[in-house]
Design a protein that fits this description.
Blueprint (H helix, E strand, L loop, with lengths): L13 H9 L11 E5 L6 H13 L6 E4 L3 E3 L5 E3 H11 L16 H16 L6 E7 H14 L5 E7 L13 H19 L10
Parallel strand pairs: 1-2, 1-5, 5-6
Antiparallel strand pairs: 3-4
Helix pairs in contact: 2-3, 4-5, 5-6
């Protein structure tokens, strides 16, 4: 079945939703020139930052670019953009400041990629960048990777590096109301991109 053929997402089984959300997002272990760390609401930034820091400490890429210009009030009362908050988390996780390249304008996933590529070009020059590792939540990865095919230059390869958590996994996401809602939102947005013809259709069983 193709996602474009689905009239209502509510008609799909949990297994089918799993196949759409978590299909084709495995980390293949390749190295990259930079890690593009996609922004989110503050509660979900730590899991993404943790993944990016792990990739850096494993020597998978020499730079991390946190991306996200939406500002949020943190639990401490501070007001901070997604990118600056994730930079703080990365520093706490032992990533040196010289390895962090900030993108502080994007307000959506689409803009994470557009502004991220622009900032990567400014910092590193795209002619020197062949592979970008995409670090984001596992549920968010399928949509993010679909967008990379549309928005990234043809000379650049994007590789998924999903941040799995105890609940953001194929066998657990539907058991938690908040994570289930996140998953349903990602499904809806992904289908919208497919229906609008902006990304490739997705085959699933």
């Amino acid at each position: 079945m193709w996602l474009s053929q689905v009239a209502e997402l509510s008609q799909l089984s949990v297994e089918q939703k799993n196949n759409i959300l978590y299909g084709e997002i495995d980390d293949t272990g390749v190295n990259g020139d930079v890690i593009l760390l996609l922004g989110s609401k503050p509660p979900f930034c730590p899991e993404r930052a943790q993944k990016a820091a792990e990739l850096y400490h494993q020597g998978r890429a020499p730079y991390i670019m946190p991306s996200g210009g939406v500002t949020w009030q943190l639990g401490s009362g501070e007001v901070m953009s997604e990118a600056h908050y994730m930079k703080r988390l990365l520093l706490e996780l032992g990533v040196p400041e010289k390895a962090i390249l900030l993108e502080n304008e994007a307000r959506t996933t689409k803009e994470n990629l557009i502004y991220g590529v622009l900032q990567i070009n400014r910092e590193l020059q795209l002619k020197n960048v062949k592979t970008i590792l995409i670090a984001t939540s596992a549920q968010h990865m399928r949509r993010s990777m679909a967008l990379t095919k549309w928005l990234l230059p043809r000379t650049v390869t994007a590789c998924p590096c999903p941040a799995y958590t105890d609940l953001d996994r194929p066998d657990a996401w539907y058991t938690d109301a908040e994570i289930r809602q996140r998953g349903e939102t990602n499904l809806r947005l992904l289908k919208g991109l497919v229906d609008d013809g902006l990304v490739d259709d997705i085959s699933f069983t």
